[in-house]
Amino acid sequence: MLTATKKVNVKNRTLEGFNEADMEWGLEQFESTPSTALYSDDKNKTSRKLSELTRNDRGSLFEYNVAKKIQRYTGIDCDVTNNVGSCDIKMYYKRRKIRIEVKSALITQNGQYLFQGVQPEKAEFFVFVRIDPRHGPLYDVATSSEVRYYVTETNSISCQRTRFYKGEMVLKTLSDWIQAYV
User: Fold this and answer.
1) Which pLDDT band holds residue 182 (cuts at 50, 70, 90)?
2) What is the pTM of this model?
3) Which long-range contacts (CB under 8 A, 24 or more apart) does 160-168 make?
4) Which of 50, 67, 112, 179 is most buried, by the most CB atoms less than 10 A from its CB?
């Protein structure tokens, strides 16, 4: 019968005297612990604002940001493609078209950045943007051959706070890359 009741043995399964006020106090404590707020104004306002954007919006923002930095420091024309399936940026240098893919990631609770949708065949260079909770966006550049070696079957690359997967990928800062390759 659906309406029949069954007696449940609750002995040793409850906390005596635990009430609604205790629950509210516990929730307050949980919500105020720093680990639940990875991104906050206290740490870095820019990082917090970036963490609130959707993955697509954040990606588009960094595509334009990287193209602008390259143009500003080198004077070389860059086009943001806005195309799904194509590279993110096309840079025209000495009659050559250089394809650049930009990937950004937020840090997770376990201290990892996970860059998704990494396809080495899409570009010659990859700009990885880690949104650090305390320091803001951190830019690293790798070649497609380096990325090809480290990308997983799921087209992702993971990174801890200070080093990329396997710790051996040779990365340049964006300004070092601009000086070395342009």
Assistant:
1) low
2) 0.74
3) 160/111, 160/112, 160/113, 161/107, 161/111, 161/132, 164/128, 164/140
4) 67
